[in-house]
Amino acid sequence: MPDPNGTAVVMKFANILGLEQYLYSMTLHTNSFEIVPVQLNIKHVRKASEQKSKCVKDREYLQKKRLLVETEGDKQARLKKASEYKKRKQSEETDS
Asked: From start to end residue, where is composition biased (Basic and acidic residues) (predicted)?
């Protein structure tokens, strides 16, 4: 349906009766509209997007893999922080 700002609404109906009922309801509101058939070529769009998404997924996978590689220093720092947290929690429970 045309809109004054230049946008359009695309609608799909399962049968001609649904379209007929919708058009009848539009005439009650005296809106102007134009019916234009639309055809999409999905095959080419889908192939290009799949290739692009595969490339993006590979790049994201490599970035995550690099981030997940933990050095020995990082591991020791993480374990130290976890043990300090555990000690704090235990002391809080005994104080309560």
From this structure: 74-85
